[in-house]
Structures are given as structure tokens and as C-alpha cells.
Design a protein that fits this description.
about 15% strand; alpha/beta; Rossmann fold; 13 strands
Length: about 400
């Protein structure tokens, strides 16, 4: 069986320091219930040589195979995900003096950054013998699991809030997944999923409730590093934050690169959330160790309507360790940003993906980014499923 060369060592809980065997199927920490994260034996990895070697590898995120958890190439489940472009945006009136770029994951398989996490999580679950998987989702994660589950020949069930856009519901059906719609937000969808699936033997692929989706999101940071020179490596990354795995994944990548001597500084990470559902930003402003649940979430960005993100302390830890912070934006500003990205820059962005662009005036006003800095906005998904004839 061909090997990937993965340097996977084990799993650990950063909350209580419990260590878990990576070659046994695991969910959250068996001691405290916190999130588990993969660890790697990187002491012998020469990052400078490794970066040179990457140039000869296929243009997918699996080029980083040593720092991903799948051991056998036979279990890699791929649709060609990764290596999305970084686009310079040029002068933007709302951000004078800022050197702006945008990393565009809207062109990935299934139309969003969720392809990264699900490709790795499904591959590893397949390697560990999982036959059936389920996930509660605001839309994009469900579509991604449905697609990668189909690719892997696995049974998949998706639990979506009733208000999930119709194109996403249809996509789950087309990929052959079982679909259950639930009144309320993703919080209610998650509770119903876990109630129905209790004792079924199906594996829960929810955000940070299994260890490997974060590893797929880690490739976001690895790509930003590989695609940047010392002169273009961003000072700050502005990221739309719902479940927060992307923040955690990028932080893991940048810490690994810094510890390996590949970078001498890491970008500041800024979380953007809508006014109607901002538990992470509220916790940052309050200096809290974890985010309290947000009552009655409302926003036009379904992927950001996450009122109670699991393992929120890890999200907050990542933002604070980077020297970053958080801002909120209105739904009106998100709508305007969707239009500006499309008409000014030719970028199709979902409401979630447009939120960082909408955040620029607030970031400047609060002095969180400054003229002369290099700021990267992260577009997490295509806006095409949201566009209608009325737009």
C-alpha cells in the first residue's frame, strides 16, 4: 500500500493535555470533551528544502502530504481541491493606502473552502474504517461532505436548517446524501442530528468534533505561505468566522512554519462576524476565555449564523496569539460588498466571503489595519448559488 510520508504522530487536547492514539477513531477529548488536534514529527523536516520540492508536486493541497494525517495514498479522497489563487485587488476606496489581496476559495470543488476540511476528514475516516457519516451544516459543509462521501463510496446524512438556500439542499440530494431539514439555526440542526444519530454507528463530522477537518483547513495557511514571497507575505488576514475552523487551521499552519524556521513572523488574524450573530467578536471584546451562546441569530450569511461555536476557546486563543482581533459588519454592508467584489474586481463571493471586504472601513477606523500594510481577505465561497435575477 503506497505511503504518503505523513509525519502524523498522535492527537492531543490543548485544554487538558490528554494524548490519544491517532490510529484509533476519535471524536473529542475522552477526558474533558475538548477538541483534539493532530501532532506531527517535524523535527527532521527541512522546511526550506521541502518548499523547493513542492514545486514539482501536483497543484492540489495534497502536495503538503507530510503535514496531513492520511497515511496511505489509497485512502486519499480528492476532487482536485486546493491551490486557489491569491488575487491582487488594487486600490479600494474603502481602504486607502492598504495593499489588498484576496484568496479565492470560491473555485474549489463544491464551491467553497469546506472542500479542504472534508477532503481530509473523509479520507482519514475512510482510512480508519468509517462506513457512514453525518454532519449538521449551514449549507457548504453539507454539500462538501455529500460530494466527498460519494467520491469515497460512503453513506452520508446531512442535517440543514430549514432556511438553507435551495441550491445547497438540491446539491446534497444530487450527490446522493440523505437530507434532513430542521427548524431553527445550525445549533438546532446539530442537536437534532446528534439525537437522531445516537447509537446509529454513524460518525459525526461536525466542526472541531473530529480531529481532521482542521487539518484540511491548515492548508489555507500553507498555501498563503507558499504563494507569497517575503515581500508579499501578509501582515494581516481578514476571515469570515462562523464555526471558526479556518482560523484555527491557519493558526496551526503558521505556528508550524514559525517553529520550523520557515517564517520569522505570522499574520495577525481578524475574525469578521455579522451584527446579528457575533459570539466570537463579543468574547474578544469582553476578554472572555470562551464565547457565550448568541441568542436569536439573524444574518443573510448562513455560514456565519453559528450562535455557539464548539471549542470557541481554541478560536479565541488563535486570534489572540496572532495579535489580531475581531469586527462586526451589518447585513447591508455585506450585500454592498458582494456587489463591489463582483463589479469592481470580477470576484464571485458568497455573503460569508464578502464579509471581510465589508469589514475594511471598520478595521481602518479602529486602527486594526493601517496604511502601508499588506492585508489579505479570505473569500470562503462562490456567490453564484446566492445570485438571483433580482440582484
Amino acid at each position: 500500500m503506497p505511503e504518503t510520508g505523513s509525519l502524523l504522530a498522535g492527537l492531543e487536547c490543548r485544554a487538558c493535555c490528554t494524548e490519544v492514539d491517532a490510529d484509533r477513531l476519535a471524536t473529542s477529548c475522552p477526558t474533558c470533551g475538548g477538541a483534539l488536534f493532530a501532532t506531527y514529527r517535524t523535527a527532521g523536516l527541512d522546511f526550506a528544502r521541502w518548499r523547493r520540492d513542492l514545486a514539482s508536486r501536483p497543484a492540489t493541497m495534497w502536495r503538503y502530504r507530510e503535514l496531513l494525517p492520511v497515511r496511505s495514498t489509497d485512502h486519499v479522497t480528492s476532487l482536485g481541491e486546493g491551490c486557489s489563487p491569491i488575487l491582487p485587488l488594487g486600490p479600494v476606496p474603502e481602504a486607502p493606502g492598504i495593499s489588498l489581496s484576496l484568496k479565492d476559495d470560491g473555485g474549489l470543488p463544491t464551491g467553497s473552502f469546506k472542500a479542504r476540511g472534508m477532503a481530509v476528514a473523509v479520507s482519514r475516516a475512510r482510512e480508519l474504517g468509517v462506513a457512514t457519516m453525518f454532519v449538521p451544516s449551514a449549507g457548504n459543509a453539507g454539500v462538501a461532505l455529500a460530494a466527498y462521501g460519494a467520491r469515497a463510496g460512503r453513506t452520508v446524512r446531512i442535517y440543514l436548517p430549514e432556511g438553507t438556500p435551495e441550491p445547497m439542499q438540491r446539491a446534497c440530494h444530487r450527490y446522493g446524501a440523505g437530507l434532513v431539514t430542521v427548524p431553527g439555526s445550525i445549533r438546532e440542526a446539530g442537536a437534532e442530528a446528534r439525537r437522531r444519530e445516537a447509537g446509529s454507528g454513524a460518525f459525526d463530522m461536525s466542526t472541531l468534533r473530529e480531529p481532521y477537518r482542521a487539518e484540511g483547513k491548515k492548508t489555507m495557511g500553507l498555501e498563503i505561505w507558499e504563494q507569497s514571497s517575503e515581500a508579499t507575505f501578509p501582515d494581516a488576514i481578514v476571515y469570515p468566522t462562523g464555526g471558526g475552523t479556518g482560523i484555527v487551521g491557519m493558526d496551526r499552519a503558521f505556528r508550524m512554519l514559525r517553529d520550523g524556521g520557515a517564517v520569522d513572523r505570522t499574520p495577525r488574524l481578524y475574525a469578521v462576524q455579522p451584527d446579528g450573530c457575533a459570539p466570537i467578536v463579543r468574547a474578544l471584546r469582553a476578554g472572555a476565555a470562551r464565547a457565550d451562546p448568541w441568542d436569536a441569530p439573524t444574518t443573510i450569511a448562513p455560514g456565519l449564523a453559528v450562535p455557539s461555536p464548539f471549542a470557541s476557546e481554541r478560536i479565541l486563543e488563535a486570534i489572540r496569539a496572532s495579535g489580531g482581533g475581531g469586527v462586526t459588519v451589518s447585513d447591508a454592508a455585506i450585500r454592498e460588498a458582494v456587489v463591489h467584489l463582483a463589479r469592481r474586481h470580477g470576484v464571485s463571493a458568497s455573503p460569508e466571503g464578502a464579509a471581510p471586504y465589508a469589514a475594511l472601513p471598520g478595521l481602518l477606523r479602529e486602527g486594526l489595519v493601517r496604511p502601508g500594510e499588506r492585508v489579505l481577505l479570505y473569500n470562503t465561497g462562490s456567490g453564484i448559488p446566492f445570485w438571483t435575477s433580482a440582484d
